[in-house]
Design brief:
The chain is α+β, with helices and mostly antiparallel strands and 402 residues long. Among the domains are: 147 residues, Rossmann fold (3-Layer(aba) Sandwich), CATH 3.40.50; 102 residues, 2-Layer Sandwich (Double Stranded RNA Binding Domain). Helix content is 28%, strand content 29%. It is built from eleven helices and 20 strands. The strands form four sheets. It has a ten-stranded mixed sheet, with helices on both faces. Strand 18 and strand 19 form a beta hairpin. The longest helix is centred in the N-terminal third of the chain and has 20 residues.
Length: 402
Amino acid sequence: MMMPVDLETDAARLRGAMAGNLAARGFLDDAAWRAAVEAVPRHRFVPGFYLPSDECDGQGLTLWQPVTAALDHGRWLAAAYSDATLITQFDGDEPDWEDPAERYGGAPTSSSTLPSLALRMWADADVREGHTVLEIGTGTGYSTGLVCERLGSAGVTSIEVDPRRLEQAASALHDCGYTPTLAVADGLYGYWPEARFDRIVAACSFRAVPPALVAQARPGGKILLTLSGWLYGYARVLLTVDGDGTAEGRLLGGTVSFMSARTHAAPAFGNPAHWAAGLPGRSRVARHGPERIIAVTEETFHLRFLVQSAVPDAQLTTVGGVVHLVDVVSGSAATLTPDGDGDGGWRVREGGPIRLWESVERVLDVHDAAGRPGPETFTLCVHDGGQHLRHPRVPCLPLPSP
């Protein structure tokens, strides 16, 4: 679609300003990546998106306002060239951007990742000239455009599980002159027709490393992805693939999170009260309170990831001050309730084949005894026998089966 000259002029100016801001913050040390940011018109990849307002409904759900050029041209263009993630889809429902509606709440299922994170992913994966690249999660196509601008389109393959998302991304990419290989495919299985790849980079998260990705990387190739779980703990890992089909790499620091691959998303677990009703009446004093894994800190972010390796099928929610852990696979459940003595203690009730909170406490005990090591001290090993987190002072933690 042809754009007005004043729009393209304004967009170029805003791109330059965004590139300068990213460079000042240390995200554009490579001149070639800065040139890519200055060249790729992000606004063409986001004809519409949602921004949160300060308003909530009676249940505390955020009001999300649609933003398009027709509704508010200035707000749309400014947001397109901000270092922010722009939500483009909730709950798998594709909006009609010709007549978008406000909405309350919902789970984001597609977005345009904030530019600094997109650049950080490509840089952390050590993407260089001559590499063949598989990107998992095309989304709007903006990140795809950046790597095409940097490497050329011929070596770039990008896959997306949502055909409507890919159709819009393909249109934007081609309108901008980029011609990567695009396909509707589930990232869990990679994309065999274009394998093997020098670099595989995922813009979604997985519960464990998909074996197909290891098989589709060249010996010496690298895989950068985010691991997550149903407790919403995250860890990024950069794996190097060996010639024997194994892979190994350190966890990376930071608190980066991505939406789950749709086949790895947490299942609905029903009404927490129903689960709590089946628990035994007797409770015990908790050695650790739930704040250890729900507080908003970088350490907590890491701890949630370690904990969910021990209870991979558990989910957590809080209702009326009571914390519920629910495991839909085993049928186990636990509740944590303030003990009421004013000292901040908690009492636990749990039942089922797995003592969920007891398992959580064991991980916290070991982590404390080891000196509370951070993510960069853990190594992920992928081999025929499974996938394990290793640390010199912490017992091996297996990841759930992919």
